[in-house]
Amino acid sequence: EIVLTQSPATLSLSPGESATLSCWASQNIAVHLAWYQHKPGLAPRLLIYDASNRATDIPPRFRGSGSGTDFTLTISSLEPEDFATYYCQHRHTWPVSFGQGTRVEL
Amino acid sequence: EVRLVQSGGGLVKPGESLRLSCAASGFGVLGYDMSWVRQTPGKGLEWVSSISNSGSYIYYSQSVRGRFTISRDSARNTLFLHMRSLRVEDTGVYYCARALEVVTTIFGYWGQGTLVAVSS
User: Fold this and answer.
1) How many CB pairs below 8 A link A and B?
2) Least CB-CB distance to A49: which of B46, B100, B112?
3) pLDDT digits 0-9 by tens, A44-88
4) Which chain A residues are closer than 8 Å to B39 by Cβ?
5) Closest-CA residue to A34 (of A45, A43, A42)
């Protein structure tokens, strides 16, 4: 079973700053990684799939990178609506799984 | 437009059963891989179960295997999660999700979530 570890648990930033979120896989998952944004009371939203592909209507300030075991989600110039919890998720093998999340807060 | 509308959550006692529904529109539930994901209190997202578009492959997380059953009804274009022998630790918000493409576990579209509370 593949374990995803996200870091940091919480990121305290201000609008306009950049956020760098990390996700490490316990074994090689190629580029089979997605990133989701989750706000309280709302459904999760797909941001990035296959490590670096932005989903439909996702603004270019969201950028995914990495392969193998090390992955990064970068949010350049945070907008007020970007404060949320972010999860990585692998689809390399069954069972698929999520990381424990990184909360981006003011 | 792809839409997933969930129903069926509620408050139940440990050991009881519940069925969650996820009515789809804008596509056919038999045409895509479909899944259930939950968020338990104080924890993050947890994958629960998936069914392939063909129905040939069904997967469950270890925590629900043997107690939960995923199924589909083409006439109602609806995905279901039948939950039995519910435990306190099953409490959470359950989301249905559709694959981004036909066959994949990239969760591209999500339902609004439904709350399941298991308490004595």
Assistant:
1) 56
2) B100
3) 999 999 999 999 999 999 999 999 999 999 999 999 999 999 999
4) 38
5) A45
- State which amino acid sits at residue A85: T
* B39-93 pLDDT tens trace: 998 789 999 999 999 999 999 999 999 999 999 999 999 999 999 999 999 999 9
pLDDT digits (tens, 9 = 90+) for A24-45: 999 999 999 999 999 999 999 9
Where b means 16+ CB within 10 Å and e means fewer, A49-63 reads bbbbebbeebeeebb
B61 vs A38: CB contact, 8 Å cut-off? Answer: no
- Map A24-88 to HEC letters: EECCCCCCCEEEEEECCCCCCEEEEECCCEECCCCCCCEEEEEECCEEEEEECCCCHHHCCEEEE
Contact between A43 and B62 using a beta-carbon 8 Å cutoff: no
